Amino acid sequence: MAAPIDKLSITLVHASEKYRLEVTKSEGNGDLIVLDLLEAAQKVTSVPIHAQKLICKGKSLSDPNQSLQAAGLKPGAKVMLIGGCWSKGWCQSDDDWEKG
Q1: Residues of 8-34 as b/e, b for ≥16 C-beta within 10 angstroms?
Q2: Would you give the DSSP letter of residue 16?
Q3: CA atoms 92, 53, 73, 18: torsion sign
């Protein structure tokens, strides 16, 4: 089993933009997880987590608790973000979404 990683550099592709992300783990996590990537993507794109769909190598990263290693992400990986309704006002805020 590979040693846990606490930092990973990836390329995030959203619409026609490319972002170099340095994903770091949240406190309390033993390894980088998909949620860490979702949070990093939200910071650079302003797309809220609930409106994001991440895809890497044709596979959806749908489990926020899955480790990035288990998902097959390696340094330099390219991840596609689908979502963008936030900027157009189509989505609820994260707080409203959780309330239903």
Answers
A1: bebebebeeeebebebebeeeeebbbb
A2: T
A3: negative
Mean pLDDT (the chain) is: 84
User: What is the per-residue DSSP string for 54-98?
Assistant: EEETTEE---TTSBTTTTT--TT-EEEEE--HHHHT-SPPHHHHH
Structure tokens at 53: 């769909």
Residues 40-84: pLDDT tens digits? 999 999 899 999 999 999 999 999 999 999 999 999 999 999 987
- DSSP label at residue 23: E
Q: Which structure tokens are listed for 96?
A: 């409203």
0.90 surpassed by pTM: no
